[in-house]
Amino acid sequence: MVGQSPLGPAEGRAAVLLQPFVHQVGGHTSMLTYDEHTICKPLVSQELSFYESLPLAMRQFTPQYKGKGSSHLPKKTFPAFQKDSLGNLTLIASPSLGQPDGSAGGDPAVTLWHKCNCSGKMLLRTDLQYHTDSLLEDANGKQPERKSYNPWGLHCHRQHLNRMSSKHNENKLHQFLLLENVVSKYSYPCILDLKMGTRQHGDDASEEKKARHIKKCEQSTSASLGVRVCGMQVYQADTGHFLCKDKYYGRKLSPEGFQQTLRQFLCNGNQLRTDLLEPIILRLKALLAVIRKQSSYRFYSSSLLIIYDGQEHKESTDHHLPFPKTHGTNPSRVDVRMIDFAHTTFKGSKSNPNPTLHDGPDHGYIFGLENLIKILQSLSEGK
């Protein structure tokens, strides 16, 4: 539903409907689609600090931060709840027009907004209605396939809106970051979300939260391998559906189960995509070389995405696909990206002038990357 924004500075400007990012496979924060190539997520100062001081060598392994220096994609957007004439809550987001104090700047006043009623139930496009709260298993312990979207992102979106609306302040501003949609170039994005490292709690975690995260690591492959499955979707060419797994599935996996899940991630229902193993391994080795050089960085609770297109493209473009692409033998048919830096710490962080200082690189993250590479190499060797 689209209507006139009540925000004065944006009156008369085009409105864009914020919708759930339907290819979100993990995490608990709701990701929203800004446009085909851009997503927005709630702003956390520690993550903002990371992106603003991102080492040059890491940029190819993280989403592009679309903040500074862009007249089209401003650094932050500011959503707020307001009531419309029917008493419904409206989540309105508009770009910062310059300084935090509201002084004018050069960015266009684009208005982004979404509708929900007072109980926080979203009014989405009809093909994105909520069907489940999560990827619940059936009687046989299996999680269902989804034809067009991964329901985990919608689950996160509903939970997020419920939290916001239950304690909403009609004048409160909720800040967002604008980041590259790293799967926008894929017609049928197959995504593996891996929680990296042997430790997940941040330096600022409470004793209760610290104990909870330590327990999760001890009871999963985070302790034994330095990596665990946080979510997954794989396009099945034989059925035309996505096979989806969530974080609860990933927590229960043994090291052997983790290896089997990696194999499943590369299986399209007809065959194992062995052609993807070498480019994925090469990309992971390149990332490993970069991480080894990042002294003082600790990527606590961050994730690593492995991405490829479930549609095997030929040299010619298929114009019947939703977003026709020509990949051919282009190595970009696979991608590896680090995401989620809300608990990342490093020397010189602007969000924390007195952080806990760590020496050397993140050995827990390196341990996870090394094991991930070994497992993929064993798959490549047919083991």
Automatic annotation (TrEMBL):
<keyword id="KW-0418">Kinase</keyword>
<dbReference type="GO" id="GO:0005737">
    <property type="term" value="C:cytoplasm"/>
</dbReference>
<dbReference type="GO" id="GO:0005634">
    <property type="term" value="C:nucleus"/>
</dbReference>
<dbReference type="InterPro" id="IPR038286">
    <property type="entry name" value="IPK_sf"/>
</dbReference>
<dbReference type="GO" id="GO:0000828">
    <property type="term" value="F:inositol hexakisphosphate kinase activity"/>
</dbReference>
<dbReference type="InterPro" id="IPR005522">
    <property type="entry name" value="IPK"/>
</dbReference>
<keyword id="KW-0808">Transferase</keyword>
<comment type="similarity">
    <text>Belongs to the inositol phosphokinase (IPK) family.</text>
</comment>
<dbReference type="GO" id="GO:0032958">
    <property type="term" value="P:inositol phosphate biosynthetic process"/>
</dbReference>
<dbReference type="GO" id="GO:0046854">
    <property type="term" value="P:phosphatidylinositol phosphate biosynthetic process"/>
</dbReference>
<dbReference type="Pfam" id="PF03770">
    <property type="entry name" value="IPK"/>
</dbReference>
<protein>
    <recommendedName>
        <fullName>Kinase</fullName>
        <ecNumber>2.7.-.-</ecNumber>
    </recommendedName>
</protein>
